[in-house]
Amino acid sequence: MISIHGQILLIMLFWNSDCQIIPRIEECGLSCSQGIHCKSKPSSGIFNSFCHDAPASLSSMVLKSMKISTVMKCVQGSPCSLHLNIKGTLSLDVTEMNKLAEIAIKSFNGHFFPLLQMPMLVQIQFNCIEVNAAQHIYVTMKTVPNYCEVKLSQEYYVEDCRNSDVGKHIPSCSAGKFDYNVDRARKIISVNVSSFLGDQDYYIRLCHKWFTCEDTGAFAVIKRKESFKSVSLKYSQLLPCLCIEGWLAIPDARRIQLCPFENGKHLELCFHSLYTDTKALWDNVVYNPATQTLAWEPACPVLVMVNLCRLMKSNDHCEDIQNSFKNSSEKQVKYSRVDTHPRLCMKFTTKQGSWVKCPFAHGEFPAWKMRAAAVAEQIQVFFTSQTKAQFSVLVCNRTQLASCESIGMHHSVSVGDSVSIALSQEMCGTTICIQGWRTDVDYSVPLQICDIHCGFRGQTYGDGNPAKVMTHRYPSNVQSKMSWRVDGVVTPENVESFSLMNRSNV
After folding, report:
1. Cβ(390)–Cβ(411) below 8 Å
2. Distance separating alpha carbons of residues 473 and 482, to the nearest angstrom
3. Reduced to 3 states, what is the DSSP secondary structure of residue 239?
4. Residue scoring higher pLDDT (6 or 238)
5. DSSP secondary structure, 258-288, as one string
6. 282 φ, ψ (degrees, to nearest 5)
7. Which of 82, 131, 224, 290 has the greatest number of C-beta atoms within 10 Å?
8. CA geometry: angle 412, 414, 420, nearest 5 deg
């Protein structure tokens, strides 16, 4: 039996939280019990904000209790409004019955409502303080003059729009409803608004939803006199966080948001459309030459792993650079002291696949080159660059496409200088390479010269001869798009970005 009563009590408490009927009033005012006549007068201002020691004849318990609730004032022909209903209990000693006691309620807006002479126990009620739905306020009841230690304070939360009575009758909770249509060809979202107060203007905009909804610039106003409650808003990209937000043109109005493209909703899940609608997330990659910093700022909150990578022979593989992985837990991902080589790229990996952006691919930033020449029994390696740079060179055995194991000493070299490496029979294999990279930056791409022909003398590897050595070969369907040379120079036809999709998830 006890458990049944407990369940009933729990249900009642839950019901009251969202379905409680707010008491109604037609007029607000100040009233006192015991037949005492009460009246209000303006606050005495800043002078009453400083407290004074209470006289010995005034008990600190003169202010007995204070209770706060919410009432709703509804007058025919006008919207309903919420008000604080403050009830205070005053207790006076018998010796004080014939004294004049001015008792006041101080609300959060600084008004005072003093009372006249009163008997030992008096209840006062005041309900003329208008509040907003979901407002967090502090109420203090104290004496006038303001006696120290003679006051009562209480924190109070006004019911929000989830309360059915508040949501139905308070204008700021009537946020409206949306119907929308997307015109992809014109990049326009048409929005029709219904179920809101017709005697108020209505604001509507597009925004990118983070913790709050950040403005995109698309904004419109539906005038109260307009019979056609529809607007057209232009967008630049259909991002997952693109939302429609609307609210009444009144202070502290409740806002309603609709995010139709969230989690891929309303986006065609074919490869081309998914790539087109998602690639805009990776567009904002910026390099600062002064600080050598490469940064990405996402347009939307997105769970993604970011890392730097080295573009390999074909445009379907970008080899990860070690110690460059970062999560997009914040609004910006940064890499300091970055090499501006055309093959250095940024990779973004989500559950849908991977996308690669190569911000230096168009040759707008200085790039370095590595060349090698066979002279007598040595290979001479030298670097050229438009800026000062330091490099390291070694001979390595390329066991895999992106893996080259060192089989010799490291050699340091500066721009304009060269280093000589003695030729040996072991260096004439097809998997033996000379690898070079920058050492004066934190993130650099290694370049390799492979397939060294020991039978030739005076042959230069890097810029001139032969095509077999100079060019990484591509499949026939890729050759028409771009070609790479060993020194890293990129042809104008090079594609700046591409996607590496996990097609099993598309």
Report:
1. no
2. 10
3. coil
4. 238
5. E-TTGGGTTS--SHHHHHHHHGGGG--EEEE
6. -100, 10
7. 82
8. 55
DSSP 146-158: -BTT-EEEEEEE-
What stretch of H or E contains 169? helix 164-169
Structure tokens, 312: 């390999």
What's the residue count for the chain?
506
Within 8 A by CB and 6+ apart from 476, the residues are none
DSSP sequence for 176-226: -EEEEEEETTTTEEEEEEESS-TTS-EEEEEEEESSSEEEEEEEEEE-TT-
Q: Which of 371, 365, 396 is nearest to 383 (CA)?
A: 371
- Which residues are CB-contacts of 294 (< 8 A; sequence separation ≥ 6)? 285, 286, 287, 308, 334, 335, 338, 346, 359, 443
- Which residues have C-beta within 8 Å of that of residue 432, sequence separation ≥ 6? 395, 396, 397, 398, 407, 426, 450, 452
- The amino acid present at 262, given as its one-letter code, is E
**CA of 25: how far to CAs of 73, 86, 106, in Å?**
5, 14, 21
> Which are the contacts of 202, defined by CB distance < 8 A and separation ≥ 6?
176, 193, 196, 221, 222, 224, 229, 246, 247, 248, 249
The first and second tokens of residue 422, run together, are 């003695």
Question: Which residue from 468, 503, 506, 474 is spatially nearest to 491, judged by alpha carbons?
Answer: 474
Please work out, in degrees rounded to the nearest 5, the angle formed at the alpha carbon of residue 293 by the alpha carbons of 405 and 343: 40
CB 492 within 8 Å of CB 361: no
Over the stretch 171-196, which tens digit does the pLDDT of each residue have?
A: 778 777 888 999 989 999 999 888 66
By the 8 A CB rule, do 452 and 379 touch?
Answer: yes
Tokens of 322: 């070690």
Give the Å distances, CA to CA, from 369 to 135, 204, 343, 402: 65, 54, 12, 19
Q: Is the peptide bond before 145 cis (omega within 30 degrees of 0)?
A: yes
Rounded to whole angstroms, the Cα distance separating 157 from 166 reads 14
Tokens matching residue 357: 């952006």
| Those residues with Cβ within 8 angstroms of residue 292's Cβ, 6 or more apart along the chain or in another chain | 336, 337, 338, 441
pLDDT tens for each residue of 450-494: 877 665 455 555 533 332 332 222 233 333 222 223 443 333 334
Written as one letter, the residue type at 206 is L
Confidence band, pLDDT 50/70/90 cuts, at residue 378: confident
pLDDT digits (tens, 9 = 90+) for 437-446: 999 999 999 8
Under DSSP, is residue 292 helix (H, G, I), strand (E, B) or coil? Answer: coil
